[in-house]
Specification:
407 residues; mainly beta; Neuraminidase; 5-stranded mixed β-sheet; globular; disordered N terminus; binds calcium ion
Length: 407
């Protein structure tokens, strides 16, 4: 190992062998903390490069009847995911750590024998600039770098020799700070793409801190919503077709401020408060606020947990109470004394109103050490979901089966 682990892989493995699995992990939380606290290295990354996610996935706790499996552990830096017609999962990345230019790859992940475990990971685009955003439209893959959008035509038929991309728009700023994009096509067949704030907190032109949309050919750019610091996940409500998005609040205020946000766009042009206001009316007095009616968050989420690729669940596999509910991966805090997040939450929406958040899946954080970070969610045709993990370089599959002998 290149650096000292918070606690050794060996002892961790022994804990697992001793039955420190999902059912007992909670009861042993204090034990885990005690083990972790023996080391001065409590901040940082579990040395997952030497470890296999399959060794740790038993630590994930899920509601009764749900199961999590490793879909692939061969996807370094796995971030946004999108599904093509013939089952290929395309995966964007945020650029390689340590690379000052933040060059990264886009992958095609294929389950060729359809046993719900990936068999192939093909690099379809190399050395792009933070190619975090991916979206399919027909047979074309759209990839967003911070400053431009690329289109790869008929990609699924050409995985071995991917086509040269067409640049459909290159009008966005190229800041690295919050520059990586999450993208998706809306019910209006337009491509939605944010530009984050180029800072922790700052006032900026309307080029920043907005969600834009463009027509599928790259033309007709317009602003959909203002006052958004850094959204890395959005989806449209399956019934109302309204856009909902997560937003990550500012750093370096306090451990418990500001709240993270789940937001609902009810009409184009709304302002969601950044950098003046967070959550439901929490003013930040760093800047004098203009006389604008800020939109409250639909729901305040726990501070610094970094809610990313939220999706509404529309499948038939999960129990009926999950239908049209939001599943939100929380990437996890860095700006907090006690780590928070590193889980997937569930938010039901009734009559357009977000209900309280509950935890759906947790266990990527053990004591103060995270071995993985849930990043994006992709619903599969069978109703299972894939979850990307950019720290572990993995994609998991969460499925549900009613217990045959349940009473
Ligand atoms: Ca397979
Ligand atoms: Ca806000």
């Amino acid at each position: 190992m290149k650096y000292k682990a918070p606690f050794s892989l060996f002892s961790f493995t022994i804990l697992i062998l001793l039955g420190w699995n999902s059912s007992s992990a909670h009861a042993n939380q204090s034990q885990a903390e005690a083990v972790v606290d023996q080391s001065p290295v409590v901040v940082g990354r579990f040395p997952i490069k030497e470890a296999k996610p399959a060794d740790y996935i038993g630590l994930i706790e899920l509601p009764e009847g749900f199961q999590i499996d490793v879909f692939s552990d061969q996807v370094p830096g796995a971030r946004s995911m999108t599904l093509a017609k013939n089952g290929t999962v395309f995966v964007g990345t945020r650029g390689r750590n340590g690379d000052p230019e933040r060059r990264g790859d886009v992958y095609a992940v294929r389950d060729t024998d359809q046993d719900m475990v990936a068999d192939e990971v093909i690099t379809v685009a190399r050395d792009l600039f933070m190619p975090n955003g991916v979206a399919m439209r027909g047979d074309a893959l759209f990839v967003a770098e911070p400053n431009r959008v690329l289109r790869y035509d008929n990609i699924e038929a050409k995985l071995a020799e991917p086509p040269k991309p067409v640049v459909i728009n290159e009008s966005f700023p190229s800041d690295i700070h919050h520059g990586w994009k999450y993208i998706a096509f809306g019910p209006d067949d337009r491509l939605y793409l944010p530009v984050g704030a180029p800072c922790n907190i700052c006032e900026s032109s309307d080029e920043y801190a907005v969600i834009n949309s463009i027509a599928a050919d790259g033309s007709d750019k317009r602003i959909e919503a203002f006052g958004i610091r850094n959204t890395v996940g959005f989806d449209w409500h399956p019934v109302t077709k309204e856009l909902w998005f997560t937003d990550n609040g500012r750093d370096l205020w306090s451990d418990d401020m500001p709240p993270e946000e789940l937001n609902r766009v009810s009409q184009r042009g709304q302002h969601f408060g950044y950098p003046y206001e967070y959550g439901k009316g929490h003013r930040d007095n760093v800047f004098e606020a203009p006389d604008i009616d800020f939109e409250d968050a639909a729901l305040e989420l726990p501070p610094h947990t970094a809610p990313l690729g939220m999706k509404f669940y529309t499948g038939d596999m999960f129990p009926v109470e999950y239908k049209n509910a939001a599943l939100i991966p929380h990437h996890g805090s860095w700006n907090r004394a006690e780590p928070a997040g590193y889980y997937i939450s569930l938010v039901k929406v009734e009559g357009g109103i977000a209900q309280d958040m509950t935890i759906f899946a947790q266990g990527w954080l053990q004591g103060k050490v995270n071995w993985g970070r849930p990043t994006d969610i992709l619903q599969m045709p069978d109703g299972s979901i894939l979850v990307s993990d950019d720290q572990a370089g993995a994609i998991y599959r969460i499925s549900y089966a009613a217990q045959a002998n349940a009473q």
